[in-house]
């Protein structure tokens, strides 16, 4: 893993950076620089469009420069409230038909014409191309959006988005964009007319084509309500909405775009240049291709070199690990096959010598521990005999004092039979033999206590052959009788039982219980020398069943004592 990490840091990571990260970084740099250049270009483009809109705006203020035109518009406005004579009406119409067109003459051919709608509903149109174009009389001028927007602007200029010139009598209706304004009486501030100057959309195309950007782009001009005024590429309404809604995620003609925008101050129009990301990325295509070729070739070459070297280096170590695992499982005869005389061979020789020394050390340590354990086991077992004899002889003294010589003789004969069992050379016995010895001891104690003592012994047949340390349970039964039953004034019962427990996770165990209903004792107080049998039993259990047993003692004053020993079994022990 360290070699792989080293390979990744020194070879793989730099190759990935060179082949993929660097081109992406340069794409970001080129994109940022292109955006800056495009933004600078938009400054000039915005000024050109602003200049053109200013020309259109100046056309809409032309009526204010001629008193005759303004008086004529006032006459028409007064005619709404009171009748005027025919001469005045004729004079006003003459001025608007002849004097007004001379005011609206301009040098820009791309300004198509000017429409004036007086407050009384009369309409006048001046065609910049000197053609006799007439407005439609049946057209609802006051219901048009551009008319309402001009009235709402209340004398300020209103910029109208692209709309058809359907208010003129033309064989083909073109699309235009316009600038409209409400003409008001300078004195009374009353509305007199709405004037609108129309411009051909081709002028926007000319202005846009005068500038260029580094990549293929889409240029759009939208009004304050995000309605499309101009686009150098045909865009449907759905595509335009996609462009305006989420510029960072645009998919038009299977390409993504970056938006650079600038607003025209007076009109609140927005000019947006949409730069193609694919074309920006193509500028570093050679870098990506070179990086990819270098990355693939370098990775293939270095991988084979790394694989060959790492295999040669790691194979001996894997063999050493396999040898050590065999030694861990107890196979002390396993050795590493040494090849060559390099550092790995030296390490292999040291490993083989260590295994040999470890085998010798374990053997010696095992024999020493085994002898020490047997010595401790016999020492603990030897403590049982004096303890038992002491309690038994005290019982004989009690029988002699009572004058029960016949019962004493029977007890002595029972004792001699038990001693023959005690003095056998075996360190362990079966549960059946142990329970038989306890049965004889119980008979011996029943002679002493007569009807004051009842002993019940129960052994499950499947546990008869289980091996335990000899005289393991004898001290516990003695303590139950001597310390629990003897001081008690009422008849008592001692129960000794052994039974299997339900299997849990395929683990078998059995439990041994020694219970009496004698006087009991306080388990929180320190156990004195009279209960030396308890500590003896615990130590012998720890030697015979390490980590496989539980010893539990429950006792309370006046309610007796219960000792529970739980021992886990191996499959081999169950099969015996």
UniProtKB/TrEMBL annotation:
Keywords: ATP-binding, Cell membrane, Kinase, Membrane, Nucleotide-binding, Phosphoprotein, Transferase, Transmembrane, Transmembrane helix, Two-component regulatory system. The chain crosses the membrane at residues 6-27, 286-309. It is found in: Cell membrane. It is a multi-pass membrane protein. The keyword Cell membrane applies. Pfam families: dCache_1 (PF02743), HAMP (PF00672), HATPase_c (PF02518), His_kinase (PF06580). Its main location: membrane. The keyword Cell membrane applies. One of its GO terms (molecular function) is kinase activity. Residues 311-363 form the HAMP domain. PANTHER family: SENSOR HISTIDINE KINASE YPDA, SENSOR PROTEIN KINASE HPTS. This is Sensor histidine kinase.
